[in-house]
């Protein structure tokens, strides 16, 4: 024991658990009158200052506690990008509970599984999404949660201008006898919330799309949320008082932790119920937006807006995207329209983005092909992530940094999940050898930048949503006329990728592609359904394994026809 180990112990004066809840408390003290939340709609405009935001978060915490929610219990939220979702990111944790943001695009079966598996005590539901939630509640096996309805006062529910991309009625209905504002009214705006006793305590639960079987529940802790939130501030170069437009779903990895990031710098949240070109451009100009995030579909929406909808921006907007690297043509259009695009990479298990293609100014001088190669790389670790590498998963040795040798991308650090809820075997497998195994295959370049080359999990990324090809295949196999099915990604001009199904029929059976799609739509969320169905023998190896690489080549050709 050295001299620095003597009489220098941790105590409450010099050691406190890290939690992002402290960000909101500080901003409410330092900038009580600064705009925190803006929410505009056809019927009304809403505004919160930081003092009001903090008071509503404490009201929610107080009300949940009065309603019997205890430390470590789950509060689920099925909400669009609206103020209650931002309030819940603080209020739920201030009650000591764990926030489970539900993917609003999923079907009732998956929602029901998530509510049961997470043992939700309360569910806050947007009126527009009440239909699928009603179905989910009927499918639940366990105790039913308390339902809290949110009726957005800014939104005209009867205009059909909802989130549902399939054109279904978005008017919705209320499910319970308690509305969100009434719940807040039960709470104390001066509620004396307490920090977690241990920063390892859970703060959020996020379900993956599930590559096989049911989704996995990824558990975040307070320490990781704190660090990733501050990491976002550093990576996106946020100044004091940025203005952030919510084009990224807040249910995706807790909005990549940006609901917590904005409070670090007392930024302004501009809510957006749905990603639509005119609404985006109006918000950019009206509110002097400085930052936004989204899947490639958001960039496509911005670029494809009619000229009369676009505005000349006085500011450069920092735009962060994840998924497939943005094509050079898209980057050029975004730049011409006033956006600087940064490419990120991460997973739900890493709290969202934990890798950034940190751009070098001299790369701008490269010729187009060389510059595109640099843009295609995922990049280097966030400051908040301790280690990032590419390894041989069998030997757990790093692959040569030659840009060619394939291995599995692995990470470790404080922004890696606690583990998978109630799934110790899968958790241990994910953490084998002291590293988090991403399941993504890639290479390490000589300069330390990684680049993905393939996905060991057959995931299709469509409009920023993960679609399990195995889940779609399982559904198609259940059709009485289908003998075999394989689903791969097909390039799509709007969504980035979409499912393409290759189907073998049973002898003597006939069925149309429209019938196959209709079958899928009966059993899956609509965004997961194949957009193209091809019939015929599937290519197989000598052992009978379907050769998906050949199907991907065909799907690539189909995509090129768009």
Number of extended strands: 27
The largest pleated sheet is described as: 9 strands, mixed
Strand order of the largest sheet: 2-1-11-10-12-13-14-15-16
Report the CATH topology name of the largest domain.
Rossmann fold
Fold and architecture overview:
With 562 residues, this protein is an alpha/beta fold. 30% of the residues lie in helices and 25% in strands. The strands form five sheets. It has a nine-stranded mixed beta sheet with strand order 2-1-11-10-12-13-14-15-16, sandwiched between helices. An eight-stranded mixed beta sheet has the order 7-6-5-3-4-8-9-20, with helices on both faces. The protein has a five-stranded antiparallel beta sheet with strand order 18-17-19-21-22, with no helix packed on it. β5, α5 (130-139) and β6 (146-150) form a beta-alpha-beta unit. α1 runs parallel beside α9, α4 packs across α5 (130-139) and α7 (222-235) packs across α9 (258-264). Residues 160-170 have low confidence and may be disordered.
């Amino acid at each position: 024991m050295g001299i620095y180990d003597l009489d220098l112990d941790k105590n409450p004066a010099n050691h406190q658990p890290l939690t992002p809840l402290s960000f909101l408390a500080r901003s409410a003290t330092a900038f009580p009158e600064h705009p925190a939340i803006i929410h505009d709609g056809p019927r009304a405009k809403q505004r919160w200052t930081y003092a009001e935001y903090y008071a509503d978060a404490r009201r929610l915490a107080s009300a949940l506690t009065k309603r019997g929610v205890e430390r470590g219990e789950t509060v689920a939220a099925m909400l669009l990008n609206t103020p209650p979702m931002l309030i819940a990111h603080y209020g739920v944790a201030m009650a000591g509970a764990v926030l489970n943001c539900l993917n609003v695009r999923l079907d009732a079966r998956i929602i029901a599984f998530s509510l049961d598996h997470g043992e939700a005590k309360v569910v806050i539901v947007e009126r527009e999404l009440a239909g699928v939630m009603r179905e989910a509640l009927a499918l639940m096996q366990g105790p039913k949660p308390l339902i809290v309805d949110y009726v957005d006062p800014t939104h005209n529910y009867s205009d059909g201008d909802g989130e549902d991309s399939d054109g279904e009625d978005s008017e919705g209905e209320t499910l319970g006898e308690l509305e969100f504002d009434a719940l807040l009214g039960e709470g104390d705006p001066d509620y004396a919330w307490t920090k977690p006793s241990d920063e390892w305590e859970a703060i959020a639960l996020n379900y993956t799309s599930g590559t096989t079987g049911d989704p996995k529940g990824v558990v975040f802790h307070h320490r990781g949320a704190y660090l990733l939130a501050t990491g976002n501030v550093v990576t996106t170069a946020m100044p004091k008082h940025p203005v952030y437009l919510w084009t990224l779903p807040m249910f995706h990895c807790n909005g990549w932790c940006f609901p917590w990031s904005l409070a670090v710098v007392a930024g302004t949240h501009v809510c957006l119920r749905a990603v639509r070109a005119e609404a985006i451009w109006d918000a950019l100009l009206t509110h002097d937006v400085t930052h936004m995030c989204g899947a490639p579909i958001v960039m496509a929406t911005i670029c494809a807006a009619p000229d009369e909808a676009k505005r000349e921006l006085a500011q450069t907007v920092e735009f962060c995207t994840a998924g497939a690297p943005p094509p050079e043509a898209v980057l050029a259009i975004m730049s011409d329209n006033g956006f600087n695009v940064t490419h990120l990479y991460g997973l739900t298990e890493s709290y969202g983005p934990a890798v950034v293609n940190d751009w070098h100014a001299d790369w701008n001088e490269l010729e187009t092909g060389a510059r595109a190669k640099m843009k295609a790389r995922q990049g280097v670790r966030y400051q908040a992530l301790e280690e990032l590498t590419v390894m041989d998963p069998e030997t757990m040795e790093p692959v040569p940094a030659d840009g060619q040798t394939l291995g599995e991308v692995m990470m470790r650090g404080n922004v890696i999940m606690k583990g998978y809820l109630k799934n110790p075997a899968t958790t241990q497998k994910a953490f084998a050898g002291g590293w988090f195994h991403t399941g993504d295959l890639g290479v390490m370049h000589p300069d330390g930048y990684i680049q993905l080359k393939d996905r060991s999990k057959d995931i299709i990324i469509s409009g920023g949503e993960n679609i399990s090809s195995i889940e779609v295949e399982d559904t198609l196999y259940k059709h009485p006329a289908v003998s075999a099915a394989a689903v791969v990604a097909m390039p799509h001009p709007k969504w980035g990728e979409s499912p393409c199904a290759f189907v073998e029929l049973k002898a003597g059976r006939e069925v149309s592609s429209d019938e196959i799609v209709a079958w899928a739509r009966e059993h899956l969320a609509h965004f997961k359904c194949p957009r193209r169905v091809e019939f015929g023998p599937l290519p197989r190896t000598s052992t009978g394994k379907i050769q998906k690489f050949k199907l991907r080549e065909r799907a690539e050709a189909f995509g090129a026809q768009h």
